[in-house]
Amino acid sequence: MSRAALPPTPTPVPDSTPASRPAERAVPGVHATARIRAARAGGTTVLPVLAGDGPFDLRRGHTHGDRARVCILGVMSAPLGGDRLRIEAATDHGAHLHITTAAATIALRGPTTEHATYDVHLRVAEHASLHWLPQPLISAARSNLRQSCTIDLASTARLLLREEVVLGRSGEPPGRLSTRLTVHRDARPLLEQQTMFGPGAPGWDGPAVLAGHRAVGQILIVDPALDQHPPRARLFGDDPATGQAVLTPLAGPAVLITALAPDTLHLHRLLNAAHPIA
Predict the structure, then answer these.
(1) What confidence tens digit (pLDDT) does each residue in 43-55 have?
(2) pTM of the model
């Protein structure tokens, strides 16, 4: 679906706001929210809320065991400059949910240089689990995207998160990209990280950050069982030129795997070696 297929924007009604109040600058772009809620019912997981608009088309997948599956389809080019996109997913007590996307998300410039935002909010209740496994995010040249992921976990909740970022399409430099991941467990901070890539980000391509690589990924695993069997730190990949990954135990029942590679093929191999995902 192209943006030209969207209904025309209504003509705004003149504002009666006093002249002393500064007018808010209208930012072009799509404002859209997808909402997903998983609940436990009859020994399995059901989806009482599955709603998306704008570029989000939500499809139910085949249930795997007692885990409900949702695939997010992009039905128009997004995010473009000025877009404000948001995904909200909640897993109720005892429910199990798997979310993925049908294709890579490509950040593009669009008709304005205004940045786009893509915010993900995940909530996992007691004895529930959530797999957040989107396809890669590609930062195309001249794009400007601010992405955030905020996660709230109950004390007995389990989480599997896998994210991959590709900086620039073939033969092009990346756009501006900032990402932020905030995770709370039992109302306490578990992980807070922020990264910036592309024009305006100091040192992002230097030896202390990407060292010339263009694909970066991570896997976050949160599971109370890790308290009993905590893993040891481990390095994956023998040659830095083809990428490496490191497994790091976190302060809590959690593990963070981070990887750098020259391309998506090497990145997939490293992440799968560290933690295979069916």
Answers:
(1) 899 999 999 998 9
(2) 0.88
